[in-house]
Design brief:
heterodimer; A: about 425 residues; alpha+beta; nine-stranded mixed beta sheet; about 15% helix; B: about 950 residues; five-stranded antiparallel beta sheet; 40 helices; 13 strands; about 10% strand; AP2_Mu_C_sf (chain A); Adaptor related protein complex 3 subunit mu 2 (chain A); protein transport (chain A); membrane (chain A); MHD (chain A)
């Protein structure tokens, strides 16, 4: 199981170590540093690094490497999932997960890590249980604790730990009972030069914020459940019921949680909401290149596309760019060669465009590769897959909750090749 | 107010200050102090000096303070074992606390203190906690058993905790079940033989019930445990699959992959005609695809596993090619894996799309990725014949980009395409030749030279091209040199008139100016071939080459089957079985896929995979010799030829004449090395050749004055070592082989005991040896008259002769053996004692002895010490004579006995010995002289064994 955890910052300092079994010497991280040196960028450090006596598994989040040390044959996904859980927990506890924050709260961090694993076996990883065991630090609580001498470690056995619904604590009470569901879809796509789709898929999630008194039992049904053929559920969802009736039936955790994530695969036809017209050309002889892109809406079901942001990594040979946008602001960083254009909203009557010229390094041949354009955007009140919630019902409690559903489509990894 | 303040004090009296604070009366101050201590500890400062003060804070009802002290204890108890004892009482008391959280915390912490004295006190509280009424305490205690086992395994067994743990598998609480399973799995890992997780249908049912209710982590443990179960029939397999399938929709990717493992394994038992089989296949694809939308680290692990799944069951993901398309901001490790899978999934149906993608990738920035993409295009061409033309034109386009490394990669793969489709795409050679100057990597240069040599007749200026390479001959890498040599010889054979000068130049460069033995040998062979028989040379050098295989770097099928059993584990990421990397793997149990019920094919063996691999490698002990023919045919470049892997798999398929065909080709993939070597004459590697100057063997009948001991002992035969286990049952699916070698009245035999430790009857035994240093070979087939029932042994004496083919082994007395039975073929190697090769007529005449002794140069003399031997000179010589070491003369020089002895090996090598024995000194000095000094060491070992037994 998981032996030890080292937290390493971008400059290669180990700033926290935690051992759940006998201590493993820090020097084991040397193998990691070697790999880090070999990788050009932090993102490229391989997640599995074998060493003579151990194996190092790492994730890179928030500019911190979380490096787990294991000694025996352990499922690597188990370790990586656990590390993600650690990151999520930190974020949940401290708002941000950063080196400074972790150092500022080192004792809480240590206590939390101790609760999360026992001898390398996961113990309590649900955020609601952890928070009952060790209360997250808040300014108010710190002040109160100093005055009253009370602690931020709970002395009650967390009730959820043993119940059949470990994700929900008992005795929840609210004056305003509300349940909100956000259907968020991210569209990943690769569009080729000519504008046709090479691959497009949708990663959707339904995030919920449920603040309901007691033990509510909810059912959520869809207009078109057929779309959901590849789904991952929160443990609270009754799978049998879904299999037979295509209805989500569950006792929700208290607070924020991800009810479901789904995947609409490349085989279904995915609507592409935007298009990019581009004309980027380098000429062999001249040191000037032409650059022109226009962004426009495609299949948006009448909704506005907003938050549009275009970024592109220009070839090394580009020295500078002189461009004029029809709207928004643009920056070209001559060092990293990164062009970013913050477009904002797309007005279908007046399509935003960015035109101008590129200065190329004189005397060199034209760059081999054309830049790929990366697109970000948001469309409110639309789930691009067409998924629609039919109704939400509550059983088990008497009161009438307030219900709300929101839809949103975002660009995930949306790339246009030129 | 943050914890960072704890780091700020670096004053000298810090420890002193903390000490004072720890002993303060104020609770709040105490707690702050402990926090400071913990903070210092986490950053690696040594605060162990505060041990007694911190432990004093332990007796408190403040839970946070208690926990902090526990944290400290776990860290430092090991360095202060005596002090740690002070904490025991509090632990024992806490284990009785009414609050289950405290009870659990105490038992949990105690288990983490790795001090023997403390563990003794742990047993009683642990026993109570394992039966605690509160499941939270029970589940914590279950893990504690695993901790304790890690510290003191014997104690855990003696105290019967393992049985209690097994009982917990039937606990009413799913979390307790999951933890018990996890703890047992971890313990079982260090005790592969014990049947800790002995699963039966009842316990499987319990696990499946718990599976639905426990936490995500518990599900992983239970699924991994289920994967080790062997259902009794396909009905049971199907019902387990049905209950595991819902786990594929879990949000935790580790749960998903563990479920995939169970399904992939049990699917093996289901009949392909079953409707359910098809349904299951369909259900497997979406979760695998979903894994690819997760974080890059998860993607990487998933991709490594998908790589295996795609090789085992390509049908699952055949329609999902697009999800493997690379995004430009994927991390490089994800990109490379995706590319690998794309090639595996490439088929006629999707090749157009794949090619377009690959071409796109070939213009990216990352050099490694671009290279792999270019290679991938070549592999597509080889895999999908219809696409070859398109691939070639794509490659040509890429060559036009003139990007240096792209061009070089392209040329390397085009060479492979030429090999696969001879006489089809030679029109592109002209384009290739244009880029000759830009090639700076050895592999690309070698590939280009190969192309020029192979198609010399079509390239007008081939001689000029090759000549230009020849200028810097000595600066080239070996690969290029060898290639250049061969290419010029080919050119000469094709256009003998104009290139005579060139060929002489290259031959002299290779043979006279080079230090590389490979190059020199190859040069000599060509030289002799060309000078003795140019027609034969043409036949050899320009022979038709075998086609290259379609799929490169496929995982060997039996290894693949084993790896499928390890889906989701590290083994699946490394693509190696755990035995290859797990630290101190105490005989890791190999897993195998269950056999398909109802079909007669026997279980495929995961076991033979590694050993077959070894066997395939072993003939190459002396590569220069073994590869000669390969060299001549010029196959040492590019992807592996399909030969050896095919042979390996044919062994697995259970074909009838295993040993005749498959094994032979496996063990002798270098056949033909010897004739070539013979032709080469003097420059062959020195083998244990017969020293020609030695006289004819002399009969022992010739009387000699100094022949002291007559024929004593000859009848009793030479010393026979006790039998030892050569092939453990674990490595050979239950067949255990132990044995020894003996020599009696001139005949050598291998005395074997075959024991069947499996549950099925074994029959159809056969044996074969690999070539070895002295040509040992079975003189008769292995005779096992009746089939071997389970738990039965049979003793066999297998007569051996020494007329088999010879190959020098390292060590010299190494013997590689293949044994076949109805189940599989197994390989092992053993060392035979050299004295079984000492022949009966090894007695040399006195004059001859003297002359020979002088004749052998002194460098060949080796001296050894035989220690702790208290025999008298006479006893020594009679004992040695029993093993055919003959004493020729005995002298007494200054109180020391000098024995002069001779012996002869089966292949005619004489070994002369001088043994010096000093009275009252148990250490003898042995000097050996022999024309083949490599045997001396082994002769000495034979002396040592004979004299000491």
């Amino acid at each position: 199981m998981i032996h030890s955890l080292f937290l390493i910052n971008a400059s290669g300092d180990i700033f926290l170590e935690k051992h759940w079994k006998s201590a493993v010497s820090r020097s084991v991280c040397d193998y990691f540093f070697e790999a880090q040196e070999r990788a050009s960028e932090a993102e490229n450090v391989p997640p599995v690094i074998p060493t003579p006596h151990h194996c190092l598994l790492s994730v890179y989040r928030h500019k911190i490497f979380f490096v787990a040390v294991i000694q025996s044959e352990v499922p690597p996904l188990f370790v990586i999932e656990f590390l993600h859980r650690v990151v999520d927990t930190f974020q949940d506890y401290f708002g941000v997960c950063s080196e400074v924050m972790i150092k500022d709260n080192v004792v809480v961090v240590y206590e939390v890590l101790e609760e999360m694993l026992d001898n390398g076996f996961p113990l309590a990883t649900e955020s609601n249980i952890l928070k009952e065991l060790i209360k997250p630090p808040t300014i108010l609580r710190t002040v109160v604790n100093t005055i009253t001498g009370s602690t931020n470690v709970g002395d009650q056995l967390p009730t959820g730990q043993l119940s059949v619904v470990p994700w929900r604590r008992t005795g929840v009470k609210y004056t305003n009972n509300e349940a909100y569901f956000d259907v968020i879809e991210e569209i990943d796509a690769i569009i080729d030069k000519s504008g046709s789709t090479i691959t497009a898929e949708i990663q959707g999630v339904i995030d919920a914020c449920v603040k309901l008194t007691g033990m509510p039992d909810l059912t959520l049904s869809f207009m078109n459940p057929r779309l959901l053929d590849d789904v991952s559920f929160h443990p609270c969802v009754r799978f049998k019921r879904w299999e037979s009736e295509r209805i989500l039936s569950f006792i929700p955790p208290d607070g924020n949680f991800r009810l479901l994530s789904y995947h609409v695969s490349a085989q279904n036809l995915v609507a592409i909401p935007v298009y990019v017209k581009h004309n980027i050309s380098f000429r062999d002889s001249s040191s000037l290149g032409r650059f022109e892109i226009t962004v426009g809406p495609k299949q948006t079901m009448g909704k506005t596309i907003e938050g549009v942001m275009v970024t592109s990594q220009m070839p090394k040979g580009v020295l500078n760019m002189s461009l004029t946008p029809s709207q928004g602001t643009h920056i070209f960083d001559p060092v990293t060669k990164l062009l970013s254009w913050d477009v904002g909203k797309i007005n279908p009557q007046k399509l935003p465009s960015l035109k101008g010229s590129m200065n190329l390094q004189a005397g060199t041949s034209k760059p081999d590769e054309n830049p790929t354009i990366n697109l970000q955007f948001k469309i409110q009140q639309l789930a691009i897959s067409g998924l629609k919630v039919n109704r939400l019902d509550m059983y088990g409690e008497k009161y009438k909750p307030f219900k709300g559903i929101k839809y949103m489509t975002k660009a995930g990894k949306f790339q246009v090749r030129t | 107010m943050t914890d960072s303040k704890y780091f700020t004090t670096t004053k000298k009296g810090e420890i002193f200050e903390l000490k004072a604070e720890l002993n303060s009366d104020k609770k709040e101050k105490k707690k702050e102090a402990v926090k400071k201590v913990i903070a210092s500890m986490t950053v690696g400062k040594d605060v162990s000096a505060l041990f007694p003060d911190v432990v004093n804070c332990m007796q408190t009802d403040n839970l946070e303070l208690k926990k902090l002290v526990y944290l400290y204890l776990m860290n430092y108890a090991k360095s202060q074992p005596d002090m740690a004892i002070m904490a025991v009482n509090t632990f024992v008391k806490d284990c009785e606390d009414p609050n289950p959280l405290i009870r659990a915390l105490a038992v949990r912490t105690m288990g983490c203190i790795r001090v023997d004295k403390i563990t003794e006190y742990l047993c009683e509280p642990l026993r109570k906690c394992l039966k605690d009424e509160d499941p939270y305490v029970r589940k914590t205690a279950a893990v504690c058993v695993a901790k304790l086992h890690d510290i003191n395994a014997q104690l855990v067994e003696d105290q019967g905790f393992l049985d209690t743990l097994k009982d917990l598998i039937s606990d009413s609480n799913p979390m307790v079940v999951a933890n018990a399973v996890a703890a047992l799995s971890e313990i079982a890992e260090s005790h592969p033989s014990s049947n800790l997780l002995d699963l039966n249908p009842q316990s499987i049912n319990k696990l499946l019930t718990a599976l639905n209710e426990c936490t995500e982590w518990g599900q992983i443990f239970i699924l991994d445990c289920l994967a080790n179960y062997m259902p009794k029939d396909d009905r049971e397999a199907q019902s387990i699959c049905e209950r595991v399938t819902p786990r594929l929709s879990h949000a935790n990717s580790a749960v998903v992959l563990s479920a995939v493992k169970v399904l992939m394994k049990f699917m093996e038992m289901l009949s392909k005609d079953l409707d359910y089989y098809g349904t299951l296949l369909k259900k497997l694809a979406p979760p695998l695809v979903t894994l690819l939308s997760a974080e890059p680290e998860l993607q990487y692990v998933a991709l490594r596993n998908i790589n295996l799944i795609v090789q085992k069951r390509p049908e699952i993901l055949k329609h999902e090619m697009k999800v493997f398309f690379v995004k430009y901001n994927d991390p490089i490790y994800v990109k490379l894996e995706k590319l690998d899978i794309m090639i595996r999934l490439a088929s006629q149906a999707n090749i157009a799309q794949v090619l377009a993608e690959l071409k796109e990738y070939a213009t990216e920035v990352d050099v490694d990725f671009v290279r792999k993409a270019v290679r991938a295009i070549g592999r597509c061409a080889i895999k999908v014949e219809q696409s070859a033309e398109r691939c070639v034109s794509t490659l040509l386009d890429l060559i036009q980009t003139k990007v240096n490394y792209v061009v070089q990669e392209a040329i390397v793969v085009i060479k492979d395409i030429f090999r696969k489709y001879p006489n089809k795409y030679e029109s592109v050679i002209a384009t290739l030749c244009e880029n000759l100057d830009s090639l700076d990597e050895p592999e690309a240069r070698a590939a280009m030279i190969w192309i020029v040599g192979e198609y010399a007749e079509r390239i007008d200026n081939a001689d000029e091209l090759l000549e230009s390479f020849l200028e810097g001959f000595h600066d080239e890498s070996t690969q290029v040199q060898l290639q250049l040599l061969t290419a010029i010889v080919k050119l000469f054979l094709k256009k003998p008139t104009e290139t005579q000068e060139l060929v002489q130049q290259v031959l002299s460069l290779a043979t006279q100016d080079s230090d590389n033995p490979d190059l020199r040998d190859r040069g000599y062979i060509y030289w002799r071939l060309l000078s003795t028989d140019p027609v034969a040379a043409k036949e050899v050098v320009l022979a038709e080459k075998p086609l290259i295989s379609e799929e490169t770097d496929l995982i060997e099928p039996t290894l693949l089957d084993e790896l499928i059993c390890y889906i989701g584990t590290l083994a699946s990421v490394y693509h190696k079985p755990p035995s290859a990397f797990v630290e101190g793997s105490r005989g890791v149990v190999h897993k195998s896929l269950p056999p398909r019920t109802g079909s007669s094919e026997s279980a495929e063996s995961p076991e033979a995979a590694p050993s077959a691999g070894q066997a395939a490698e072993q003939p190459a002990v002396i590569p220069a010799q073994g590869d000669l023919l390969g060299d001549l045919l010029n196959l040492d470049l590019g992807p592996p030829v399909s030969g050896p892997p095919l042979a390996a798999s044919s062994v697995q398929m259970g074909a009838v004449d295993l040993l005749g065909g498959g094994l032979d080709s496996l063990l002798r993939s270098d056949v033909g090395g010897s004739p070539a070597m013979g032709g080469g004459g003097g420059f062959a590697a020195p083998g244990p050749a017969v020293p020609a100057s030695m006289g004819a063997p002399l009969g022992s009948g010739l009387g000699d004055l100094f022949d002291l001991t007559g024929g004593v002992g000859t009848l009793s035969g030479s010393y026979v070592a006790p039998k030892s286990v050569w092939l453990p049952a674990m490595k050979a699916k239950g067949l255990e082989i132990s044995g020894t070698f003996s020599r009696q009245v001139g005949s050598i035999s291998m005395d074997l005991v075959l024991t069947n430790k499996a549950l099925q009857v074994m029959s159809d035994f056969a044996i074969q040896f690999n070539r070895n240093s002295f040509g040992l070979a079975p003189a008769a087939p292995l005779q096992v008259h009746a089939p071997l029932a389970p738990n039965q042994s049979v003793e066999i004496s297998l007569p051996l002769n020494t007329v088999g083919s010879v190959m020098k082994m390292d060590p010299l007395n190494n013997l590689q053996v293949a044994v076949k039975n109805n189940i599989d073929v197994f390989y092992f190697s053993t060392l035979y004692p050299l004295h079984i090769l000492f022949v009966e007529d090894g007695k040399m005449e006195r004059q001859m002895f003297l002359a020979t002794w002088k004749d052998i140069p002194n460098e060949n003399e080796a001296q050894f010490q035989i220690k702790d031997c208290s025999l008298s000179a006479d006893a020594v010589s009679s004992k040695l004579q029993g093993s055919n070491i003959f004493t020729i003369a005995k002298r007494n020089v200054e109180g020391q006995d000098m024995l002069y002895q001779s012996l002869k090996l089966t292949n005619g090598i004489w070994v002369l010995a001088e043994l010096r024995i000093q009275p009252n000194n148990p250490t003898f000095t042995l000097s050996l002289k022999c024309r083949a000094p490599e045997v001396s060491q082994h002769v000495y070992q034979a002396y040592d064994t004979i004299l000491k037994n």
